[in-house]
Amino acid sequence: MKILAIETSCDETAISIIEAQKVGSNTKFKILGNEISSQIAIHREYGGVFPMMAKREHGKNIISILEKVLKEAKLYKKNKTTIYSDKDSKKIDKFLDRETELKELWPQIIPFIKKPNIDAIAVTTGPGLVPALWVGISFAKALSVYWDIPIVKVNHMEGHVFSIFPKKGKTFSVDSEKILFPMLTLLVSGGHTELILVKDWMKYKKIGQTRDDAAGEAFDKVARMLGLPYPGGPEISNMAAIERDIENNMPIFLRSGTSSSLVRGPKKSSILLKPIILPRPMIYSKDYDFSFSGLKTAVLYLVRDLKEKNPNILDDLNIKYKIAKEFEDSVVEVLTYKTIKAIKQHKIQTLIVGGGVSANKYLQEMMIEKIKENKLKTKAHFPSKELTGDNALMIAIAGYFQFKNKKTVKNLNTIVAQGNLSL
Ligand code: KG4
Ligand code: ZN
Question: What share of the chain is helix, strand, coil (3-state, %, to 5)?
Fold first, then answer.
């Protein structure tokens, strides 16, 4: 069967088409098309994602992304005549009423595309930015009516769980007997920091979460304090890596994916008289919750105090490297400590780390090192780099399993955006 998946929960407009074939416990997947359009360049100017701006961009781009993905999947055919029943067009109009940009573009393009051979449409309904989510949902509903294809709702976080399966190449498989339970999932992104216990396929229990900022959000905010562009995670992480190399007397390499200011390399600095030490919030708390807002404030005060001594202190790259490293050390230490504690308590066989922050190399390295150090047998999985962030491929995979669970929605009016949807 073929699934078309739509993801618009934050600042990526993404659509994927996959084909799935089940043989015993093994499901083989083929990626027919996978398109993503990032709004990062737009949001970077404002230092973060603004929901209404994200919504507008999704509305402007989503139809052309559909055309692209259909072409990539070789499912794109032109319709010479358009047949719209009155009943359907009223329904579609109603679904598109809240989407100004989409409503304007729809009649110019969609009626001229022939119905593709798709068995289900999967759409992210939450969690995420509500106005952004609605674009994907409205589009999915309108397509569902227009092409008479059923819809499955997908929880964005479940998507991140499934993001570990595709590797290099166009095919991959999910063998439900090869993944051992209990499983633990650490989901770390710009909006979430959660530890989820998975006792069996699609059976989730949240055992911990952040009480304030998400880990990625803290990376982004600290980056802003250091004058680094959005998104801050990769910037901070690269600076931290440089500082680790300096401390280990390693040669400094140019690192890709960073702002150009980074590649100037280290200068001698004498401004810091004492080492930078940041807190490890809630590390020894009895639960599995997290808190990153205090850590962010600690950096704020540190930068303020340093600037009081020397207003230009942040011109010294060495200071930024040191702050970045200590900050990353703190976040990674807390995340790994609590994850290892949960692995031990729940006798976890499989660990999945997903979400934007799972791209963090140091987090990946430390997680593997701590599993080894504690002599645990847990197998750790991380998504391939392209799938750490938001994408529609992961939504397609989760959508397939939801479809197999007979989770298609009968009444489209019941599908609504759920900003705080939980697993
Ligand atoms: O999952 P994602 O693409 O979007 C959602 O928030 O749902 O995650 C984006 C977040 C941003 O906060 C970004 O700074 C962070 O992931 N991030 C990283 C790294 N790459 C992206 N954080 C730390 N280290 C990284 N290498
Ligand atoms: Zn995400």
Answer: 45, 20, 35
Answer whether residue 420 is part of any domain.
no
Same structural domain for residues 182 and 73? no
CA of 311 to the centre of ligand 2 (A): 37
pLDDT digits (tens, 9 = 90+) for 69-112: 999 999 999 987 666 667 788 899 999 999 999 999 999 999 99
Q: How many Å lie between the centroid of ligand 2 and the Cα of residue 356?
A: 6
Q: Answer whether residue 419 is part of any domain.
A: no
Residue-wise pLDDT tens digits, 239-250: 999 999 999 877
- For 319, phi then psi, to 5°, come to -65, -45
What is the Cα–Cα distance from 87 to 145, expressed in whole angstroms? 10
pLDDT of residue 271: 57
pLDDT the model gives residue 83: 65
For the record, the structure tokens of 154 come out as 């997908």
Whether 423 is covered by a domain: the verdict is no
Q: Which atom of ligand 1 is nearest to the CA of 223?
A: 14
What pTM did the predictor assign?
0.93
pLDDT, residue 263, reads 45
Q: Read out DSSP for 252-281?
A: PPP-TTS-GGGGG---------S------T
Which of 43, 99, 35 has the alpha carbon at shortest distance from 69?
A: 35
Measured in Å, residue 390 CA sits from the centre of ligand 2 at 5
Range of the domain at 186: 178-383
pLDDT digit string (tens) for 293-342? 999 999 999 999 999 989 999 998 999 999 999 999 999 999 999 999 99
> Which residues sit with their C-beta closer than 6 Å to ligand 1?
10, 189-191, 216-217, 219-220, 231-234, 237, 355-357, 359-360, 389-390
